[in-house]
Design the sequence.
């Protein structure tokens, strides 16, 4: 099954149909609408395409297996559906060739539906263990009007994985989606999260990326009504030779919408490379938009590389607030000196400073056990690189 393609959306300042936006939302379900990337294209220039193990050029064959376990409380329906299900592909178009290939190649999809008006007593936990090979996946998370839910997607194991997570947050609903990429060191993961946020709804995305050889994630948000709110938070710890890439897009296509984007990373070891691309469009004719995004990176050793690119395009004069920031640097020597002057050994002082750096973001995770587990994993990864 393939879907229709969509042409780039023009934000034209009222000067006709000339597309001014370099961040124009576009895509297609047809893999043939995308050329094979060579790594020189703008959307691929930071990604080591040769390490994608055939995902980018169509040579990857779906031969992998996963162990999937879903723990869902009362009020949640979990379905495995075929390619013809009408709910698939309705939250957003694939934005690159890999995601289009995944949509063309998957056989079954998982649909999680939270009933209207239901406030879940505990999180929905989707545990996915990759057991080698290549696999293409599709998930749909549908939160009905006035419902409240937390969904945890916990990903572990080895192999090559690509696919999409489509998210629908209906009128007045609230969803927190926590996606943890704790892959084995040799894994490759390319994914796109598409969120449609309706009137007076709130969507929070929390991404935690620790494992894998190459991980490229693209969270995207569009609005379906006034009063909608989206928050995208991310944490990554990139070690020796790892490539962690996060590419967010917030399309303020409706008036009176809000967004916040905050990603924090730490890098340690030779060849560690992190990429953050933060795109925000405030559409023509909209009013009352409130948007801010920022990215911070700690480079703990020599030999690391950070690419941090915030982009903000505004096509209206009626904006409540808009801004962006990015910063990368070393640990603050003053903080380390303060702790060491009070008898704390240097290694312990470093751990305390890094723990504090990540703590605000980790505390946004509304599941106590998961918060503690992620902090433990961060500290273990830090210990590996001391």
Sequence:
């Amino acid at each position: 099954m393939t879907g229709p393609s969509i042409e780039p959306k023009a934000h034209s300042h009222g000067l006709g149909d000339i597309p001014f936006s370099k961040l124009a939302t576009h895509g297609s379900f047809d893999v043939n609408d995308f050329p094979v990337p060579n790594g020189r294209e703008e959307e691929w220039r930071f990604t080591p395409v040769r390490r994608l193990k055939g995902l980018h050029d169509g040579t990857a064959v779906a031969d992998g297996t996963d162990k999937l376990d879903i723990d869902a409380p009362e009020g949640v329906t979990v379905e495995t559906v075929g390619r013809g299900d009408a709910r698939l592909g309705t939250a957003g178009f694939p934005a690159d060739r890999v995601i289009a290939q995944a949509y063309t190649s998957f056989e079954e999809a998982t649909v999680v539906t939270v009933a209207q008006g239901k406030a879940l007593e505990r999180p929905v936990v989707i545990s996915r263990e990759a057991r080698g090979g290549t696999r293409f996946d599709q998930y749909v998370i549908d939160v009905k009007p006035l419902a409240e839910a937390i969904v945890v997607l916990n990903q572990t194991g080895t192999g090559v994985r690509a696919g999409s997570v489509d998210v629908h947050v209906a009128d007045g609903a609230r969803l927190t989606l926590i996606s943890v990429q704790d892959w084995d060191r040799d894994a490759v993961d390319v994914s796109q999260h598409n969120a449609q946020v309706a009137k007076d709804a709130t969507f929070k995305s929390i991404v935690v990326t620790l494992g894998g050889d190459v991980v490229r994630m693209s969270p995207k948000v569009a609005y379906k009504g006034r009063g909608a709110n989206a928050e995208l938070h991310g944490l990554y710890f990139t070690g020796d030779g790892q490539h962690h890439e996060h590419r967010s897009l917030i399309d303020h296509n409706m008036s009176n919408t809000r967004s916040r984007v905050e990603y924090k990373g730490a890098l340690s070891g030779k060849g560690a490379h992190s990429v953050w691309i933060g795109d925000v469009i405030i559409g023509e004719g909209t009013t009352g938009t409130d948007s801010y995004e920022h990215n911070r990176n700690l480079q703990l050793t020599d030999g690391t590389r950070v690419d941090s690119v915030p982009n903000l395009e505004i096509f209206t004069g009626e904006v409540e607030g808009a801004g962006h920031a990015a910063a990368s640097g070393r640990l603050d020597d003053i903080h380390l000196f303060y702790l060491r002057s009070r008898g704390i050994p240097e290694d312990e002082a470093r751990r305390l400073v890094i723990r504090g750096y990540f703590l605000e973001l980790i505390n946004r995770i509304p599941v106590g056990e998961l918060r503690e587990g992620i902090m433990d994993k961060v500290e273990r990864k830090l210990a590996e690189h001391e």
Observations:
- The chain has a mean pLDDT of 90.
